[in-house]
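Subject: sequence -> structure tokens, single chain

Hey, anyone have a minute? Need the predicted structure for the following. Not urgent.
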Amino acid sequence: MIKVFIAVLTLFVPFTSIADDHQVADAQASVGIPKGAVQVMHIAAQDPQAYTDYLRANPELFKALGSLASGVCTTQTGQDYMGQMFVWNFYDSVQGAMEAITKYDPYKAPRKLTAMREIKYSGVFKPLKTFDLSPGFERLVRVRVEPQNVPAFVAAATQFEAETQAAGSNVQVAVFAPIAAGTQEVGLLNVRFIAASATDLGASVDAFLAAPVAPDSGYMKMVQLGEMVTDTIEVCQQVFSAD
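Reply:
Had a minute. Here:
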């Protein structure tokens, strides 16, 4: 049990809480925490589609970072500002994501790129449950969860995903914890409900609302363990792959 708590705690405080890398790996494995991390830069784009097209046409921007896969998510509803979107880079470890920070200075990017956007903030995010990287139409809910309840919340999200898929909806649930992402993200989990299209995500919500919700369902456990802070819809695309 102590390893479970340590694994969760390391996602919110410096990694000096753990004695060595072997203990980190053992602790993560004990709660099924997958490998990998995502480095994210939130921006306000003058034209999100033009910005996305520029990134897609310039893969060298991502090759230099050692990213395994890269893309964008553009906020469609619930925006805090016009042109709200972010660029994401996926790595096989937190180490890789942190190293990438030292390889790229966003304020020294090509002039054409910097003219297309205003940087808001950036950070690293650690996935807390397995999921397939298949960007699409996604509902992003930021949830405040007490650190001691994070393992139970992730288990509830995993249960909800299984229940949703068993009911015929092809929706994934991904959960991410922020690392050094600033005041906008501290203390919050990013929960993503991922579908291939707006049709698929909307149909899954219709199906959910049409059926009774069991008190011991994954959904009810998530509601009891977390407090919703933000709620948006995003369209996500992959623009680069190292393969």
